[in-house]
Specification:
Oligomer: single chain
Order of helices and strands: EHHEEEEHEEEHHEEEEE
Number of domains: 2
Distance between the termini: 23 Å
Strand order of the largest sheet: 4-5-1-7-6
CATH class of the largest domain: Alpha Beta
Number of strands: 13
CATH architecture of the largest domain: 2-Layer Sandwich
Shape: globular
CATH topology of the largest domain: Alpha-Beta Plaits
Structural class: alpha+beta
Number of helices: 5
Length: about 220
C-alpha cells in the first residue's frame, strides 16, 4: 500500500487541535476534490478518509493512503498556511512516499494511541454507558475497533478473509471537545490486533482531523 506524508514545519509550533485548521486550509484550497475535505453534495461523507491531517510535535502532517497518496504527491509546494486567520510561514517541507505493509497478519501487532480514539457514535455510546461490567465494555470497544479496520479496508477495496481479533488495554476515558459545544468520549491506551496498519495512521471518528492516530510498538 502506498503512503505519502507531507510534513510542514512553520515559524510557529502547531498545536494538537490545529489539525482541523489544516484540513480547513487544504479543503478550502481544493474544494473540487472531496478527498481533501470529506464533504459531498449531501454533506459529510461517511467513509474512512484516505487523506488525514495531523499535528505531532509541533509539525503539521498531510498524509495520503492509496488514492490519497497520489493526491498528496501532486500537491505543489506551500509557502504559507492560513490557519483561522493567522498566516504562518512554512520554513521547511518534506514529502515522503513509501510502500507500507497493510492487511491481516499471522501474529498480533501491538499499537499505542498517540491521540484520543473517538470510538463511540450516539447509538453505541448509550450501549457503552449501560454496561457496568468492565470486560463487556472492553468487548464492545474491541468490536468497534475491528469495525474501524473493516471500514478502512473497504475504502481501499481490500477484502478480508481472515477473522480479525483485537484486545484493548484502555485508560479511563475522557471527554473531548471536537468543536464548540460538541463533546465526544476519547480513549487512550494500547491494543493488539492481527492487522498491519500504516505508521501514524488514524482510525475511528474524526480521524481526518488527527484523532485516533496510532504508532506500532516494536518488540
Amino acid at each position: 500500500m502506498e503512503l505519502t506524508t507531507l510534513t510542514l514545519c512553520c515559524d510557529h509550533s502547531l498545536q494538537e487541535n490545529d489539525a482541523r485548521l489544516l484540513r480547513g486550509f487544504f479543503g478550502q484550497r481544493y474544494q473540487n476534490r472531496v478527498e481533501f475535505h470529506h464533504h459531498g453534495p449531501s454533506g459529510l461523507l461517511y467513509q474512512h478518509p484516505l487523506i488525514q491531517y495531523k499535528t505531532i510535535g509541533g509539525v503539521g502532517r498531510v498524509m495520503g493512503l492509496e488514492s490519497g497518496s497520489f493526491l498528496v504527491r501532486a500537491l505543489p509546494e506551500i509557502d504559507t498556511l492560513n490557519l483561522n486567520g493567522q498566516t504562518l510561514n512554512v520554513l521547511e517541507q518534506n514529502r515522503n512516499t513509501e510502500t507500507v505493509a497493510f492487511g491481516t497478519t499471522e501474529k498480533p501487532v501491538k499499537y499505542q494511541f498517540l491521540s484520543p480514539w473517538l470510538a463511540l457514535n450516539q447509538a453505541n455510546h448509550q450501549r457503552y454507558n449501560k454496561l457496568v461490567n468492565k470486560a463487556k465494555r472492553q468487548d464492545l470497544l474491541s468490536r468497534i475497533l475491528i469495525g474501524n479496520l473493516i471500514s478502512l479496508c473497504k475504502s481501499v477495496r481490500l477484502t478480508i478473509t481472515d477473522r480479525l481479533k483485537a484486545n484493548l488495554y484502555i485508560e479511563t476515558p475522557k471527554s473531548i471537545e471536537i468543536k464548540s459545544g460538541v463533546m465526544l468520549t476519547g480513549f487512550m491506551g494500547t491494543f493488539t490486533v492481527n492487522f498491519q496498519l500504516p505508521p501514524l495512521w488514524g482510525i475511528g471518528k474524526q480521524s481526518a482531523r488527527g484523532f485516533g492516530t496510532i504508532r506500532q510498538i516494536k518488540g
